[in-house]
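re: ur question from earlier - yeah i can do the single chain one, its not a big deal. heres the input i used so u can compare w yours
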Amino acid sequence: MARDFDYDVIVIGGGPAGSTAARYAAQAGVKVLVIDARASIGTPLQCGELVPTNDEMRRLCPDVPDMDDLFQTPEHAISRTCETMNIITPSGKSLSYDFEGLILNRVAHDEALVEMAKNAGAQYLTDSYVEDVNEHSVKIRSGKTYTASVILGAGGHNDPVRRKFWAEKSVNIPVKFELKGGSYGDAVELHFGSMAPGGYAWMFPKNEGANIGLGIQKSFAKGKSLNKYSKDFIDKYPGETTFKGAGSLPMSGTIKKFVKGNLMLVGDSAGMVLPSNGAGITIAMVGGRIAGQTVANYIQHGEPLTNYEREWKKQMGKVMKNSKRSFKIGSIMFRMPDKLLDLFFNRLTKGIVWRAVTCRRMFWIF
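and the output i got, formated as tokens:
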């Protein structure tokens, strides 16, 4: 006998993964509630704000269908477009690549995703911290409990569903960044070497100023703090700081299982970040769409929730596998002294470096 629930699905977290899942579930006629601890979804800013264009995504993730339906970035959420990515070594040597990207106004971007989900029929409950989760219920700090057939954790690396029901560990890389005023050219920059051990640093130019920051693996840092690494790198760029932010990225790739009973994970909580380049926004949205569609098929047609994992592997399995491999190789390389790393980044290896960053097989032979 079917149980009565308040909702078909409760989504914990209204970021790109959660709001995308909510949109696609609601579009299919599913009753959706999104719960978020933030008073205003999108703030505070927590990332570098760079995403590929839809055409670039088609090249990077060729098995993902209907990109234009998934990624509908409004013009007001785009701060700048770019056509070039420079990968820079510790000595300042630069390898330049064609790359079509969008530097977002991330707050406006996430707000637009919320509006799309609401327009599809999803309900939102903000400023509501989740205190406890069970298979069919979510309790918030006010003491109120909401029930649903499916609970979807989209609350980031510290998601309450992941924390309570999944024991699997992920490598989380802490990041710090600043928004600075000034003019920084047209190309986005990725920096590798001792300035960001085990991770990378970035400079993403915006319409006014830039988003500048880095992430490190603490096990590579030799006791030096993230604050010191970030200050040393960010201070190389002139301009007045207008915002300081921080966050954490899961960089060991997706976890083994996204589904346990009627519990699901998506986005950062499921490790949906490409380890070789830190891309998370678009990848989380790919996962969000699959999760939302899977929930709808489960509610309306009784199809198993584990179809979510199968469809993810079909669309993103090759890309994630290549990205994990590149991250492992990179973790070995980035233990090298800067001088050796400089030698590796050259015209002969330029293609190999780019294949690693864009999640393709690095050497064509494995």
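The mean pLDDT is 91. not sure if urs matches, ping me
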